[in-house]
Specification:
Keywords: ATP-binding, Nucleotide-binding, Phosphoprotein, Transcription, Transcription regulation, Two-component regulatory system. The protein has 16 helices and 14 strands. It is of the alpha/beta class. It folds into 3 domains: 133 residues, Rossmann fold, CATH 3.40.50; 157 residues, Rossmann fold (3-Layer(aba) Sandwich); 73 residues, Orthogonal Bundle (Helicase, Ruva Protein, domain 3). It is extended and about 85 Å long. The two termini are 49 Å apart.
Length: 388
């Protein structure tokens, strides 16, 4: 049931609106002036506020300003007399949802209330989705081990600069999380963060993906397309698994880093770009250079700062913290009651050889949460750790 607050100094107006809205099954509260209205908004959760413009103590515009600043998700509909229509229109420009003129029209009131409440529902759903998206892109690095503290210290030192960073570590260790943390703690945080998985794109398409292409550059190029460098303008371009990049793409990336310019595939015009480059790999690039698989000059361009992310086996002291973190996160995302690890259950997790690192741990925690009873003990961990 939606909750509505009516703020108006005229008792007959309040009573008339209360009768109409309660008949429509809304929960209604009243305030006889702006000051009391502000107190009630602060103390209660309302889905909608109907507010008169001319009132003693605090007028409707003061109430509107307070609600917009402190409760921006609550829609406000202004109630205006004949002499305050212009003021009501100004209120809409300031952020009010709509206005209703006196004398009140029943149909107009109900339509406006329904529309305002629908807007409130959409705002709430949008906030929930935004929160969920942000949860899926968490930039908090969980852990207190010496290895992970070193990673955090490096991020704190480097993030504010535009220095290129090469992030190394095994699959599933959290290299992308480090890259996102660097971006979120930089002056570029409000600009795009664009990720390219170099291992997932065929070598014949990687140049088009990075630099874009002109119409007709190749058979399927039916229109001009901007590449990732241009999409990341002003922000950060994260080249994941850069050790798998083709030799020709490496040469073009090197040129882009040297000159801060790119040329689209099939084009001749040079395009200036302003992006910060972060790269990551699970390969030993020094060995790849010796094997002639990776350009040494590109390596030195990328590795101004080196950050190595330790494997989970190298930071087993963090497993209890990580397990509890994933347990809470998965429960929150799926609306599940939280379960607990016993001490021997956590010890069993620490005894596992984690070849898949953090990603493998998260998957196991989710599996245990779904399949176990209230407590997750060592027997349960060992049972589901390596399912056949």
């Amino acid at each position: 049931m939606s909750s509505i607050l009516i703020i108006d100094d005229e008792r007959p107006i309040r009573s008339a609106m209360r009768d109409i809205l309660e008949y429509e099954k809304y929960k209604v509260d009243e305030a006889e002036d702006g000051a009391i209205g502000i107190e009630k908004v602060a103390a209660n959760k309302y889905d909608l506020v109907l507010c008169d413009i001319k009132m003693p103590k605090k007028d409707g515009l003061e109430v509107l300003t307070h609600i917009l600043e402190n409760h921006p998700d609550v829609p406000v509909v202004m109630i205006s007399g004949h002499g305050t229509i212009e003021t009501a229109v100004d209120a809409i420009k300031q952020g009010a949802f709509d206005y209703i003129a006196k004398p009140l029209d029943l149909n107009r009131l109900l339509i406006t209330v329904r529309n305002a409440l629908d807007k409130g529902v959409l705002v709430e759903e949008t906030n929930k989705l935004r929160k969920k998206v942000n949860q899926n892109k968490l930039t908090d690095i969980v852990g207190e081990s010496a290895g992970i503290q070193e990673v955090k210290n490096m991020i704190n030192k480097v993030a504010a600069t535009d220095a290129r960073v090469l992030i190394t570590g095994g699959n599933g260790t959290g290299k992308e999380l480090v890259a996102r943390s660097l971006h979120q703690n930089s002056s570029r945080k409000n600009a795009p963060f664009i990720e390219v998985n170099c291992a997932a794109i065929p070598s014949e398409l990687i140049e088009s993906e990075l630099f874009g292409h002109e119409k007709g550059a190749f058979t399927s190029a039916v229109k001009q397309r901007k590449g990732k460098f241009e999409q990341a303008e002003g922000g950060t371009l994260f080249l994941d698994e850069i050790g798998d990049m083709s030799a020709s793409a490496q040469a073009k990336v090197l040129r882009a880093l040297q000159e801060n310019k790119i040329t689209r595939v099939g084009g001749e015009k040079e395009i200036k770009v302003n992006v910060r480059i972060l790269a990551a790999t699970n390969k030993d690039l020094i060995q790849e250079i010796k094997d002639n698989n990776f350009r040494e000059d590109l390596y030195h361009r990328l590795s101004v700062i080196l950050i190595h992310v330790p494997s989970l086996n190298e930071r087993k002291d963090d497993i209890p913290i990580l397990a509890d973190y994933f347990l809470q996160k998965i429960c929150d995302e799926n609306g599940m009651p939280k379960k607990e690890f016993t001490k021997d259950g956590l010890k069993a997790l620490q005894d596992i050889n984690w070849t898949g690192n953090i990603r493998e741990l998260r998957n196991l925690v989710e599996r245990l949460l779904i399949l176990s009873d209230q407590q997750i003990d060592a027997v349960t961990v060992n049972k589901y750790a390596n399912p056949k």
